[in-house]
Amino acid sequence: MPLCKTCNSLDLEQEDCMDSGINLGPFNDLLTKAENGCDACRFFCNVLQTSSRWTTRLDKLTERVIFLDSSRLDARKPTKLDDCTYCADDLCLDQCVSEDYEGPMDEEVDRVRRIPVDPRDEQCFSLIQAWTAECVTHSTCSKPLPVKLPEKTIEIPADPAVAPRLCSSDGRSGSYVILSYCSGDFESFIQRESGHTDFSAPLDVHSLPKTLADAIEIARQLGYQYLWTRTLCTSREEWGSDPARIAAIYGQAALMLSAEVAEDAGSGIFHDRRVFYSPAIGRNKDKYLRQRLLRWTSDIEESPLARRGWEIVERMLAPRILHVTSRQLIWECASGFQFEASGIVDKRTGSGQIRQRYVKGVVQPYLVKPFQGQVKEAGDVDDEVDISERVARLEAWHRCVDAFSKGSVSVPSDKLLAMAPLASVINDGTLGKYIAGIWSSDIAFGLDWSRPYALLRPAPEYRAPSWSWASVDGTVSSLALAWPQDLMQEHAKDPSWLKKYQPRLVSHHITLADPQRPYGHVLDSSHILVEGSCIGLTSLTRKLPDEGAFGLMSADTQKADLDKFGSEIEHYICMIIQGDAWRVEEGWNPHRGFCHLLILKPVDEAEVLRRVGFLRISVRSSTDPHTAFDALPWERRKLKLV
Question: Where in this chain does the record put each Heterokaryon incompatibility domain (predicted)?
Answer without folding.
Answer: 176-314
